[in-house]
Write a structure and sequence with these properties.
The chain has helices spanning 10-14, 18-28, 42-48, 58-65, 80-88, 101-105, 120-130, and strands at 3-8, 31-38, 70-76, 114-116. With 143 residues, it is α+β, with helices and mostly antiparallel strands. The structure holds adenosine-3',5'-cyclic-monophosphate. One of its GO terms (cellular component) is cytoplasm.
Length: 143
């Protein structure tokens, strides 16, 4: 079953959006297989966002993502990587259409509420950075 890594960022947690965000993915039909509220270390932030290391905003990004608790999650389901990205909306909330998470709740690219893996490779990498195998649940196939 396809899996993706999603994370409510510090702005989304502090604004009380965890429930709203979890609810959207549940109602869509995806299954939550792992979740934790945690404060990310600088080392983990730099690993997670390693591909942006040379970008001018990298320092601000690491500072922001480590500034307070995040809600890290693993979700599974048919085409969950692509569909979750669609449900999140464009990276910059000013371009995100209404009805998407960033379109409905975000204003700026720095504080854009949620992160989601953009490919199978990044999903595998990000899930293993944040979760041990034993922290991921399995669901009965009968339901
Ligand atoms: P995310 O999907 O978590 O992946 C990388 C993040 O970098 C992105 O969301 C944005 O929050 C952030 N980002 C991208 N561009 C900028 C920018 N110009 N200034 C600050 N942050 C940015």
């Amino acid at each position: 079953m396809e899996k993706t890594f999603l994370m409510v960022k510090p702005d989304g947690v502090q604004r009380g959006l965890i429930g709203e965000i979890v609810s959207r993915f549940e109602k869509k039909g995806f299954q939550l297989v792992g979740a934790k509220l945690m404060t990310i270390s600088k080392e983990l932030a730099e690993q997670h966002y390693g591909e942006h290391k040379e970008r001018p905003f990298f320092g601000d990004l690491v500072e922001f993502i480590t500034s307070g608790p995040v809600f890290a999650m693993v979700w599974q389901g048919e085409n969950v990587i692509h569909t979750a990205r669609q449900m999140m909306g464009s990276t910059n909330p000013k371009d995100a259409v209404q009805g998407t998470i960033r379109g409905d709740f975000g204003l700026t690219v720095g504080k854009n509420i949620i992160h989601g893996s953009d490919s199978t490779e990044s999903a595998e990498r990000e899930i293993s950075l944040f979760f041990k195998d034993a922290e991921l649940e399995e669901y009965s196939k009968l339901i």
